[in-house]
Amino acid sequence: MIGLTQLEIDECIRWIKHSIDFDKNFSYNYASAEDWEFLVFGAKDYYMDVNSLKKIEKTTGMVLIQIKSYNGIAEVWFGRRIEISYKNYNNHKNLSNRTQ
Q1: Contact at 8 Å (CB) between 9 and 32?
Q2: pTM above the 0.85 mark?
Q3: Which of 1, 20, 70, 97 is the most buried (most CB within 10 A)?
Q4: Angle at 32 between CA 65 and CA 15, to 5 degrees
């Protein structure tokens, strides 16, 4: 039986950007700690609903961890446990501090 594998992190970024209506000036960062990985999106304005979150979780395996807001900028945190593979490890390079 073939097991399911996680989407690569760049695909997760695309799915989240597609599922959440961010304003045009948003940024995102990638972080990992122990056996977890996180995508943190920063935006002044965005729209998401429960259906968006369900779609993101089902497609990427990432769940909404927290939303923080300070000085009019929201940080929307998604996270998942890392599935270790050499292909995924190489894909995590240079994903920090991107702006759209």
Answers
A1: no
A2: no
A3: 20
A4: 60
Q: For every residue of 5-37, which 3-state class applies, written as one string?
A: CCCCHHHHHHHHHHHCEECCCEEEEEEEECCEE
Q: Which of 79, 75, 66 is nearest to 6 (CA)?
A: 79
Query: 28 vs 3, 4, 46, 86, 97, CA distance in Å?
Result: 30, 26, 13, 23, 6
How high is the mean pLDDT in each 10-residue block of the chain (100 residues)?
74 95 92 95 95 95 96 95 63 54
**76 with 28: CB under 8 angstroms?**
no
Spatial distance between the Cα atoms of 37 and 8, rounded to a whole number of angstroms? 11
